Each structure stands twice: as C-alpha cells, then as structure tokens.
Amino acid sequence: VVCLVAYHIFFMLFVWSYWKTIFTLPMNPSKEFHLSYSDKESLEREPRGESQQEVLRRAAKDLPIYTRTMSGAIRYCDRCHLVKPDRCHHCSVCDKCILKMDHHCPWVNNCVGFSNYKFFLLFLAYSLLYCLFIAATDLQYFIKFWTNGLPDTQAKFHIMFLFFAAAMFSVSLSSLFGYHCWLVSKNKSTLEVFRAPIFRHRTDKNGFSLGFSKNLRQVFGDEKKYWLLPVFSSLGDGCSFPTCLVSQDPEQASTPGGLNSSSKSENHLFPAKPLRDSQSHLLTDTPSWSETTAKAEKGRVGMSNPALTMENET
C-alpha cells in the first residue's frame, strides 16, 4: 500500500511539473526595455558605431543593466528592438528575447528561462525519483527473470524491458539533474557557463553568485513550503538581478591588463539603481553596500550612470 501511494505521488508531481514546464510561457522583457518610436528612428538614421551606441546609452540610462557585449557595448536585440536586460538572450527557435534564458529544450518544446526554470528542475527531480522507484520495485522480478523464477510467459520480457528503461533513464536524468543543481548553487545558466557574463572592464563567471543559500532562494523563493511544489515562487521579475560585485571594494579589485590606474577605482562600480523589491533584500546583509556608500561612489565618479559609459574599442 505504501509503495502504491508513493507511486501515485511521484507520478502526479511528475505530470504536474512537466505540464508547467511545457505550458508556462517564457517571460519577455518589460516595456521599459523596448525602444521608443523616436529612439528607433534615431537608431535607424545613425550610421553604425559610436553614434548608435549614444542612442542606446540614452535609452538605457535609467535601466538596471550591468552587463555588456564583448566589445563593451550596450546589449541590444535588433530583432526585438529592445535593450537586453541582464541574463536575457534571444532564442532563435522562439524568435524572441527570453528573460534569464537557460536553453531551448526540445524535449518540452519550450524555452527554459526565468518563468519556468523551477518547474524544469522539479520535472527533472520527480522524473529521476519516478525512474528510481520503478527500477527498485522491478529489481526483484528482474532477478527472478535470470534465475528462471518467473512463469514462462511474454510478461517476463516486459519486466526486463521496464527495468532496463528505468535504469537507463535514471542514469541520464541523474547526470542532467546534478548539472542543473550545480548551476543553481553557482547562480549560473547553461548559456553563462559557455559564455561568462561581461561586466564593466572584465568578464566575471561568478558575478551573479551571492552564496549557496541566496542562490537557492533566487530560484525557489523564500518560503520553503513551496519549494517542492510546481508553483512559481522565484524571486524578482527576471529583468534585474543582484550581483556580488556591488559589495566588493573597488580599491581592492584587480585591475585588468591594459587599464590605467584611474579606471581601477571604477572597476566594480555600478549605478545606484534600486533592484526590484523581491530581489534587493538578498543584499541587505552585505555590510559594504548601502545607500550612503552608493551615493558617495556616484558623486566621486561624477557620472549619472558609470556602468553605461562605453569603453573605447580597440
């Protein structure tokens, strides 16, 4: 009876999480990241280069974005006509920008991103538990198959096939689930593993990592009662993310090669823009980052938004 109840629980959670992963629409950037009609016209009129970047800098001056392209330019999608939020990427299959895009999964025929990443993780977890449960309960009959302990009927071949299928899926799912658990612990996406996010003056593969506990809460939320249920509880809106770099001492940051000493003090400075309410509390216990410090740094640099100042391309 206990096994039967556990079987039905795993199956229901598996189907529920799979359904949510498939039918949860990926979130797109909000309207504030889309260019206005006048900015689009200005961008089309200007020749490519610094003049276009000036238009993008003006459009992005009040947006909470900290990442750049490899050349140091504002990240812009010319297909969606928007300034890309941090961790946002354009999916060539869906033909739209996806917030915190991890990958496009053909097995669920959907993009895995901010809106359904928790559901995807639970889908992997419950799929793995379901396969392990089937393999464990079928093991005794699988052993009897090889010891001639089963009646000589066609059903025993079904038992053998069921065990092999469950065992092989358990191996593949365990590796995939383990990989995504590592991604959650480091607060990375699959795309960010292959191409680390680029912040001002340098690339930092751990720029969004706040520690294991806070990284876990970003995906699963603050209320533990919802962690194992396929209900949305992730923190934030997918457009802005806290970063560990704002809590670092700019004077202690390493200066990349080729930068002069004056740029050293700006290495880890970010605009003093408020994060979304559901995200900003993740940084509240960081003693070196406060509103007073942000204002002081902002006044010292003498810019309204130093993170959006374009670097000279070489």
Automatic annotation (TrEMBL):
It catalyses: L-cysteinyl-[protein] + hexadecanoyl-CoA = S-hexadecanoyl-L-cysteinyl-[protein] + CoA. The keyword Metal-binding does not apply. Keywords: Acyltransferase, Membrane, Transferase, Transmembrane, Transmembrane helix. Residues 252-264, 280-293 have a biased composition (Polar residues). Residues 252-314 are annotated as: Disordered. Residues 74-193 form the Palmitoyltransferase DHHC domain. Signal peptide: none annotated. It comes from the Eukaryota. One of its GO terms (cellular component) is membrane. It is found in: Membrane. Its EC number is 2.3.1.225. The chain crosses the membrane at residues 6-25, 119-137, 157-179. It is a multi-pass membrane protein. Its main location: membrane. One of its GO terms (molecular function) is protein-cysteine S-palmitoyltransferase activity. InterPro entries: Palmitoyltrfase_DHHC, PFA4/ZDH16/20/ERF2-like. PANTHER family: PALMITOYLTRANSFERASE ZDHHC16 (PTHR12246). The DHHC domain is required for palmitoyltransferase activity. Belongs to the DHHC palmitoyltransferase family. This is Palmitoyltransferase. It comes from Mystacornis crossleyi. The gene is Zdhhc2.
